Please model this.
Amino acid sequence: MTKIALVGHCGVDGPRIEAQIHSIVNAADVCSCNDADALNRVCDEGVDLLLFNRELGFGFDDEQGVDLMAEVRESHPDVKMMLISDYPDAQAAAREVGALPGFGKADLGTSKVEKALRAALS
Model:
């Protein structure tokens, strides 16, 4: 089963993203990581893809998803990561720390999300 973790997404966006994932990857196990402990646990247990929010919530020491992605890259160099952000500069920064090409929240419901997820999970 494909395991995907949503990192730092709010209660409004998380369910929208999860629904999009399930429409593309039917058997996906989607979980939410809203603090560093949950993220570390998911990484240690094994995860196919981490989907980071650009701005993280209160459960993280870092405020920006890209900063946390850099930390995760150091401790889990093989984990696949992607940023969900509509800002091209944030996407570029994420790729600089080793993330796969991501998508924005405005892309939800479009073929861009499906292409990005399928490429990441192949």
About this structure: Residues 13-24 form the longest helix (12 residues).
